[in-house]
Structures are given as C-alpha cells and as structure tokens.
Design a protein that fits this description.
This protein has 338 residues and is of the alpha/beta class. The protein is 43% helix and 17% strand. The chain has helices spanning 3-10, 19-28, 68-83, 95-107, 124-132, 160-173, 189-201, 216-229, 241-254, 267-275, 286-303, 326-333; strands spanning 44-45, 48-49, 54-60, 85-91, 112-115, 137-140, 155-157, 178-183, 205-210, 235-238, 259-263, 281-283, 314-315, 319-321.
C-alpha cells in the first residue's frame, strides 16, 4: 500500500487547518478560568492545559556535543509543559540506532512521536510500524522532501535546498569568490541539500569538505589543513554553529584571510557575529521546530487539527542574522530560544 495515499485518506477536509490557524489554536488551547468547552473538549487554567496526560516521544539524530539540539529540546519541553505532556527525549546520530529508538517509543505505546529524518531510508520500516500501531507521527528539522512519502502528518522546519540557495546568493552579495562548504555528517540529506543549494546560486567556485562533527579536534585540523592547502579560499561555509566556532580557530591556525559564515545559531555564535569573527548565519529557529512539533500532536489528539493542513510543511526559516540584526537575536539566544 502506498503510505502517502494512506496518510491522505486519514485526512478529513473538515479538520484540516492551515498553519496559521494551528498556531492560533495553540495559543488559545489553554483557555481561561478552567471552563470546559460546550463539547467537553480541552479545559485549562492559568495558561496550562488540563486535558488528560499524554506521552510524546521526541527522537532526533543529535550527535554528542551538538548544542543545536538543546534549543530544539527546550522548545519541545516548553510545549510539553503547557500541554500536560510527558516528553521522552532520545537521540542517536546513527540512523539504525535512531530507528531502534523510535521502535522503543512504539513499544512504550506513546501517544505521539516527533522525529527527524536525516537519513529517511533507514526510518521507513519503523515509521510504517508506528502507523500500523495507530500512533501519530510528525517530522521536524530534517526530511522535508520525504515526510509525506513516509506517512507523517505534518512537518516543521526549513527547506534546506532553498536555504542553501539563499546562502549562495548572500555570498555573491558580499563578494566571495571561492568557498569551501563543510559537511559535518556524511549521508545527512539536509546537510547535502544545503551545500548543493549553495553551489547552485553561488557564482564563484565551491569545494565540499567532509569532517567528523563528533570530533572537534579532527574538525579543526581538517579545516586548517584545507586552508593551508588552498590560500585562495575566501569564505568557509559551515552547517552548524559548533563547527563554525571551530572554523574560527582553524582560520587563525592556518594564517588564512578567509571569512566564516554558517547555518544555525547558538549563544556563542551570535556573540561571534557581534564581534565580527563570523560574518552571518542562517537561522531556522530550532526552538520553534521543537515547540510546534510537540504542540501539533496535542492539537491532533484533542482537536483533530493537522498543522499545515496535513499537506504543506510549516516553515520556520530561513532567515539571515548579521550585524544589522544580531543584537536583537542575541537577546533571545542568551535565553536559549534562538
């Protein structure tokens, strides 16, 4: 059976809502005064849902030391606290292990699963099991090109190809001529799409450099060696904030004049943009991805809502952060929400 067709048949037009409507409902789900609705639906008090306790599993491909996922998790925890949800977080960068974590969630009979699809082929079988078990699943961050085929209800994130193309155009604007795009997790479709998008629109030359993102000393030495080998590189494009911060050290060690720009933010990264050691970053709002993914499962269970109408992804990016707007963004980065 085609799983995309199966998912479409589950979607009743009467309950399909656009992303904006879903967000409005999320804001209104708490209600006021603890009153029950006429239909006996969600009741809430003091800004927190009093609906029956749910358990939601958030399963990502987070690698050791990748602070990006701390922001995703913080958003998910905020939604869980509001919605009376027990959040069970687990992660593994190995695709097979991540699939096993999803299977664990199925075995625990959770009420919903939010999952990243960095390596979607490895997730097909276990996601089919979730569907057959009647567990609703939404995607976030990685897998925008695959979520519908895999039968997920909704997806929250950015189009990585589009963000890569925007990055390439930005490089043209700042006068870059030769860049190296650093991929820190080989086989991750989202990271590959970023570099492919960059190459598509960037008018200069682009080289791809693979590094092991879980071993920062190795990342540093590999980027340093590349910059020493090719003094013509004037921009290093990284795909994560920790890699960008390490690249700053590599540029210094190599005696290079290359500038650094990156995808994704964290507190240190926004500080580096303020100082001028990093030129700009593409922000996909990971806090929002975690928050919306968890909240959407509450909305589905209690209201029958489909974020994005069940057919369109809910976009959380891309947006550029540079010296012109970093001070405002840094205020929220300090709180761990950007």
């Amino acid at each position: 059976m085609d799983r995309r067709s199966s998912r479409s048949r589950r979607l009743a037009p009467a309950v399909a809502v656009a992303a904006a409507a879903a967000l409005t409902l999320a804001g209104c789900s708490s209600g006021s005064g603890g009153k029950k609705s006429d239909e006996g639906g969600s009741a809430a008090s003091a800004g927190k849902a009093t609906t029956p306790r749910m358990t939601v599993a958030l399963v990502t491909h987070q690698g050791p030391g990748d602070t990006f996922w701390d922001i995703v998790r913080k958003g998910a925890e905020a939604a869980a606290a509001k919605d009376n949800i027990k959040l069970v977080y687990s992660a593994d960068p190995n695709a097979g292990n991540q699939a096993n974590l999803v299977q664990n969630a199925i075995d625990q009979k959770v009420d919903g699963i939010a999952v990243t699809l960095a390596k979607p082929d490895a997730m097909k079988s276990v996601l089919a099991k979730a569907e057959s078990s009647g567990i609703p699943v939404v995607g976030l961050n990685s897998g925008m090109g695959d979520w519908q085929e895999l039968g997920l209800m909704s997806f929250f994130g950015q189009d990585e190809s589009v963000s890569g193309e925007a990055f390439g155009k930005k490089l043209n604007e700042v006068g870059a001529k030769k860049t190296v795009c650093v991929i820190h997790e080989q086989g991750n479709v989202g990271l590959t799409q970023r570099c492919d998008g960059l190459k598509k629109t960037f008018k200069g030359s682009t080289q791809i450099l693979y590094v092991n993102g879980t071993d920062m000393p190795s990342v540093k030495s590999t980027i340093t060696a590349k910059l020493k080998q090719d003094s013509g590189i004037d921009y290093v494009a990284t795909l994560g904030a920790p890699i960008a911060m390490t690249a700053v050290q590599s540029v210094g060690d190599a005696g290079s004049k290359a500038k650094i720009a990156t995808f994704d933010l964290n507190k240190d990264l926004t500080g580096a943009i303020q100082k001028g050691t990093i030129e700009f970053a593409v922000d996909q709002q990971p806090y929002l991805q975690g928050y919306l993914a968890v909240d959407s499962l509450w909305l589905f269970k209690n209201n029958g809502n489909y974020s994005g109408g069940g057919e369109q992804p809910v976009l959380t990016g891309p947006a550029f952060v540079d010296k012109s707007n970093v001070d405002r963004v840094a205020e929220f980065a300090a709180k761990g929400t950007r």
